[in-house]
Amino acid sequence: MVVLSKIYTRTGDKGETALGDGSRVPKQSPRVAAYGTVDETNATVGLARLHATGELDAALARIQNDLFDLGADLCRPNPSADDQAEYTPLRIVASQTDRLEAEIDEMNTRLTPLRSFILPGGSALAAHLHLCRTTCRRAERLAVELAGLEETNADAVKYLNRLSDWFFVAGRIANDDGKDDVLWVPGATR
In this structure, are residues 63 and 167 in contact, taking their beta carbons and an 8 Å threshold? Predict the structure, then answer.
């Protein structure tokens, strides 16, 4: 259980922060950038949920929990040393990505194939889901960059890749199953 009785600690006042294993790194480190952007993605999901109801809202709630799992995963370096840790670190697992894929497939059964790119927008929920998608893509790019520099859980990167696809398809669902998608018209303002 987490107990937060004091929010500020002053330990980061000189530009460093603690990772999940207790080591300290500069706040601009690739690892902090990656999990910080996952946190930002989670905040955009919170905004989207203001407009969501029913099963879509429940799915977004599951995703928010997954994103906390993902932040915990990314803030803990050296996945190969997990078996030597004092406790088992929380890691994203393949079944979380599999669930996203199953949900994407289910949502896709309601949609007609796209014949054009779509612009972010339509309903308020769809616009927020597109913001989730683009923020998630940035988190993915940062996680891929981190994976090129340090050992990282490969399932974490896969999850982010699939999640951005989930947001895209959910955005179409939020636009009356794609009927209210805003289509890109190439060169329309020339």
Answer: no
- Domain 24-76+90-180: give its CATH code: 1.20.1200.10
The domain spans of the chain are 24-76+90-180
Q: Nearest Cα to 147, choosing from 159, 133, 135?
A: 159
* Each residue's pLDDT tens digit, 8-38: 888 777 888 888 888 898 889 999 999 999 9
Give 116's Cβ-side CA count (13 Å radius).
11
Phi and psi angles of residue 112, each rounded to the nearest 5 degrees, phi first? -85, 150
State the residue for tokens 């803030």: 75
Contact call for residues 89 and 72 (beta carbons, < 8 A): yes
The first and second tokens of residue 11, run together, are: 């330990």
